[in-house]
Structure formats: structure tokens, C-alpha cells
Design a protein that fits this description.
The protein is an alpha/beta fold. It has 13 helices and 15 strands. Helix 10 crosses helix 11. Bound molecules: nicotinamide-adenine-dinucleotide (NAD). Nicotinamide-adenine-dinucleotide (NAD) binds next to helix 5, helix 6 and strand 8.
Length: 363
């Protein structure tokens, strides 16, 4: 099969859908890989590195889209790319189609088979989303620690502290993938860490993982209010699948925090859990201050570390892409139900129930 990787064109998107290591996996399996010139530069991969791994470099995106049987991307195609869609093309990327009706229409009309990273599902988990939550969770503490520094607007404390001085307090609300990864870094820094979750079984698992290095608390308004008031850094890491995040931290709770405390709302991509977060921020202008508390609310945190994010993402996407290349899309989805769940558009129909329902298509 011919696999094509165009350069990402979304604003500030520096990730790329294949690394040189990924290229080599395809080439060793007898496939051909076309990479657009400069596609990997934002993630630290030169055109030469791709050529050494066996890829062919192509200057123009149009040629990649025209020649490839499967196009791999990171973000959903933008309107300027819809003209490249054609019957028989397989597209493998993050799609988030429920939020992109015009993209769904273009894919349907042109007969593209579109497989979405975010709906590939194994035993109720979403393995192609997990690495980005791992990155965001680990970053959240690193970022919180930075903004606790005085020159950055914080109260001027070192989370891990030094002998003779109290350790910084970190509260993580939501103990899933983001929360657990945040806890690992916070514990590693030597902070005093509390994780709050609604799921008692999850709290037990966290207790097994971290033992006495963390405190666990059941999620309720009383516990959240008390923990927030005492914390230097609060991280929002809640997810209710398919729903907006609940506003668990009220404005009054934020007012109760010491001036110069920091909140990092990782869940802001689902609306966020802090009542005081009324907008998404960007990497260029990541924080705002409300009630003397520093608020960070960037919705694409992994975008700041594209090299790590690209490698983490492609580690999990390449094995699925190889199945498609080796067997063809039809046999690959017959053999692998996880991949079948990823198919959002095929044969001119929406094939993923939630997307069809949200966009008003028959299913
Ligand atoms: P997850 O499903 O692994 O974990 C969510 C956790 O929240 C679960 O343990 C669940 O029990 C808990 N929870 C649900 N309701 C709760 C409540 N009322 N109180 C306390 N805990 C509650 O999800 P995840 O992968 O960790 O993702 C968390 C959020 O981070 C999602 O919104 C995700 O989209 C977002 N995210 C954001 C970025 C970013 O760049 N900002 C990057 C990756 C993920």
C-alpha cells in the first residue's frame, strides 16, 4: 500500500503522523511511504531522517493526497484539504466529527473511508487518546510548579520544598489517566498530594498504586472545598464521557485560596471543572488571574511538547495503520473489532452511532 503523510496545516500544530521509526515499520513490511517536505520539522525530524528510513519526500500536499491509498494525519482535515478527498481513499487521523459537520459531509460525498483515532476502542478504553492524556497530566504539574514561581505571578513556593520548610500541597480532582500521571510527577517532586475521585473502586486502585505517598478523598462538595482552600496547586482532571465537565470548583472556593495559588484546568476541552474558567487560553497567552489565583486553561497542552507527543501518539497508531496497510481496510476491520470501532465514515454513510446521532444522519 502507498501511505501518505501531509504536513499538518492547523495553526500551531507541530505534530506529524509518522516518525522515521514508523516509516521504517511500513517499509520493512513492503509498503511505500510518501512524506511531505518539512512535515516532521516541528517534531524534530528532518527530511533526511525520513529518507534514511526509506520514505520518499514529496514537495506538494496535493501530490501526496492524489497518490496515497491511505493518508495519515494528526488533526482533522481543514476545508482547504477537502478538495483532495476521493473515492477509495482511507483517512486515519483524529477526526472529532461530531463537532465538524462540514467535514463529515465532505467525507460522505466523496466516498472516503475515515477511521478516527479517538473512537478506536479496546475493552471500553480509548488507546489512541490515552497517550495525550498522559502527556497533559504530566505537564500539568510541571506547569503548575512554574506558575507558582513569583516572577510568573505565583505565591513563590517550591512544590517539593527543602528540609525545614513545609511541602507544597497539590490537589488533583479526577483520578483517571490525566490525574494518575499528574500524581506521579507531583509525588516525584516531593509535593503533598491529594487525589479526589467519585469512583470508590478507582480510589482503591490509586491507593494500591501510590500507597501512603498520596491521600485519596471521595469527591463531594465538602471535601473539594476543604482541599481547594488548603492547596497551592489544584488540577482539574475529571471526565464524564460524552458530557460537559461538571463545575466542581465554585467561584467561592477559588476566593478561599491564598493569593498566588495556581489552578490548571486540564478538563477545559470538555468545558472545565472550575467555575472561574470562562474561556480557553493558548500557549501564547496561557494564564489569567482571577481572585488573585493564576488560572491555566490551555485545551491542547500536548501541542507544547510536539516531539514527545508525536512519538507517544505514533507508538500507538502505527500498529493499527500497519494492519490496514497489510490487510486492506475491509479485512483489517473484520479481524480487529477495536479498529472497526474507529471507522466513522464508510461507503457514503456515517458508521459510528454517536456521530450519526449528533449530526442527524441515519445509522
Ligand atoms: P479518564 O476517563 O481517564 O479519567 C476521568 C476521571 O474522572 C475518572 O477517574 C472518573 O471517575 C473521574 N470523575 C468523574 N466524575 C467525577 C467527579 N464528579 N469528581 C471527581 N472525579 C470524577 O479521563 P482522562 O483521560 O484522565 O481525561 C480527563 C480530561 O482531560 C478530559 O476532559 C480530557 O479530554 C482532558 N484532556 C485535556 C487535554 C488538554 O490538553 N487540556 C489533554 C488530554 C486530555
Amino acid at each position: 500500500m502507498i501511505i501518505g503523510v501531509p504536513k499538518e496545516i492547523k495553526n500551531n500544530e507541530n505534530r506529524v503522523a509518522l516518525t522515521p521509526a514508523g516509516v521504517m515499520s511500513f517499509v520493512n513490511a513492503g509498503h511505500k511511504v510518501l512524506i511531505q517536505a518539512g512535515a516532521g520539522v516541528g517534531s524534530g525530524f528532518s527530511d533526511e531522517a525520513y529518507v534514511q528510513a526509506g520514505a520518499t519526500i514529496i514537495e506538494e500536499a496535493a501530490e501526496i493526497w492524489a497518490k496515497a491509498e491511505m493518508v495519515m494525519k494528526v488533526k482533522e482535515p481543514l476545508p482547504s484539504e477537502y478538495e483532495y478527498f476521493r473515492e477509495g481513499l482511507v483517512l486515519f487521523t483524529y477526526l472529532h466529527l461530531a463537532a465538524e459537520p462540514s467535514l463529515a459531509k465532505a467525507l460522505l460525498e466523496k466516498g472516503v473511508t475515515a477511521v478516527a483515532y479517538e473512537t478506536v476502542e479496546v475493552n471500553g478504553t480509548l488507546p489512541l487518546l490515552t497517550p495525550m492524556s498522559e502527556v497533559a497530566g504530566r505537564m500539568a504539574v510541571q506547569i503548575g510548579a512554574q506558575f507558582l514561581e513569583k516572577p510568573k505571578g505565583g505565591k513563590g513556593i517550591l512544590l517539593g520544598s527543602v528540609p525545614g520548610v513545609k511541602r507544597g500541597k497539590v490537589t488533583i480532582i479526577g483520578g483517571g489517566v490525566v490525574g494518575t500521571n499528574a500524581a506521579k510527577i507531583a509525588v516525584g517532586l516531593g509535593a503533598d498530594v491529594t487525589i479526589i475521585d467519585l469512583n470508590a473502586e478507582r480510589l482503591r486502585q490509586l491507593d494500591d498504586i501510590f500507597g501512603t505517598r498520596i491521600n485519596t478523598l471521595m469527591s463531594n462538595a465538602y471535601n473539594i472545598a476543604e482541599a481547594v482552600q488548603e492547596s497551592d496547586l489544584v488540577i482539574g482532571a475529571v471526565l464524564i464521557p460524552g458530557a460537559k465537565a461538571p463545575k466542581l470548583v465554585t467561584e467561592e472556593m477559588i476566593r478561599s485560596m491564598e493569593p498566588g495559588s495556581v489552578v490548571v484546568d486540564v478538563a477545559v476541552d470538555q468545558g472545565g471543572i472550575f467555575e472561574t474558567v470562562d474561556r480557553i487560553t493558548t500557549h501564547d497567552d496561557p494564564v489569567f488571574i482571577k481572585h488573585d489565583v493564576v488560572h491555566y486553561a490551555v485545551a491542547n497542552m500536548p501541542g507544547a511538547v510536539p516531539r514527545t507527543s508525536t512519538i507517544a501518539l505514533t507508538n500507538v497508531t502505527v500498529p493499527y495503520a500497519l494492519q490496514i496497510a497489510n490487510k486492506g481496510i475491509h479485512q483489517a476491520v473484520v479481524d480487529n473489532p477495536a479498529l472497526k470501532k474507529g471507522v466513522n465514515v464508510a461507503g457514503g454513510a456515517i458508521t459510528y452511532e454517536a456521530v450519526a446521532r449528533d449530526l442527524g444522519y441515519p445509522y
